[in-house]
Amino acid sequence: MEGGMNRPGHMGATLLALSPFIPKLGVEFVALAAIFSMLPDVDLVLKIRHREYTHNFTFAAISTLLFFFLFRYAGIPEMLALSVFAAVSIHIAVDVFTMQKFPPFFPFSRKRVAFKVFRSDNSAVNAGSFILGSIAFVYFAGGGNAWW
What is the CA radius of gyration of the chain? Predict the structure, then answer.
C-alpha cells in the first residue's frame, strides 16, 4: 500500500497555501498549521488503516474541536485551533492528487477518490512543495505583500 506524501511535502504544501494569508492570519497560525499538517498521518503511528479514518473532513472537524478546548485550557488563543482544520484540509487536498484512493467525506460517504496525478513518494513533488512553501513563508512572514 502506498503511503502519503512525506512530511516535508505536506508541510510545504501547507506553507504554500497559507503563507499569502499571513497578513490576515498571522505567522503563528501558519506555523501551527505547518506543524499540524502531519496530523492525519497519526493513523500510521496508531497502526490503523491508512487514509481511512483520519484523512477526512470529519476528522478535521473533531480534531479542531479537541484542540479548541486544549488551547482554551492552556491559555492559547482558541482561534488558532482553526489552524488544525486548515492543515488537515490541505493534507486531504494534496493527498487526493496521489495514486491511493481514500474517502475524504467518511463516514457520510464511503466514495474513495484519487486523481492519480503523482505518486506520494515522488521526491521532486515533495521537495518542490517544501522549497516553494518555505520560500513563500519567508517572503510573507518577512512582510511581503500578497498579490491581492
Answer: 15
